[in-house]
Amino acid sequence: MSARLEGGGGIYVNTDWRTYPFLYPLFNQQFIQRNLIIWKKGSILNAGNWYRYCYELIIFGTNGDSKRTFYAGERDFWDIPLNEACIAKRSHQSQKPLELIEKIVKN
Asked: Which of 8, 19, 81, 99 could cross-link 66 (Cys pair, CB 3.0–4.6 Å)?
């Protein structure tokens, strides 16, 4: 990872339970991890070995000291469905719904 983020800037990294243990130490070499957000995708059938994957992890951090720029009551559990329209129109297999991207940019 390369820290090319302005001082105090925020960064969000989508991952899953398999990759998080490897990303955690790398992320913390460059950024300060502030939270781990759970994004509940909904009931769309996703692949899975034993259980169907219905969530992703989003690592949230900052580059140095930072002041919160979003509502103080914001939760670390985001229930934003990955709906059929998003899946039908996607151009990439891990494309995210617009509502999720808007929330990240707004925050």
From this structure: 8
How many C-beta atoms surround the C-beta of residue 35 within 10 A? 12
Dihedral of CA 63/67/25/12: which sign?
negative
Q: Which of 64, 65, 69, 51 is nearest to 106 (CA)?
A: 69
pTM: 0.83
Q: DSSP characters for 72-83? A: TT--SEEE----
Token code pair at residue 41: 């995708």
Provide the greatest CA pair distance for the chain. 42
**Token code pair at residue 7:** 């001082």
Give the residue ranges of DSSP H helices in 1-107: 20-30, 84-89, 98-106
Q: Residue 87 has what pLDDT?
A: 65
Q: How far is CA 67 from CA 17, 77, 98, in A?
A: 28, 21, 25
Question: Consecutive 10-residue runs of the chain (107 residues): their mean pLDDT?
Answer: 69 94 95 94 68 88 85 91 70 81 92
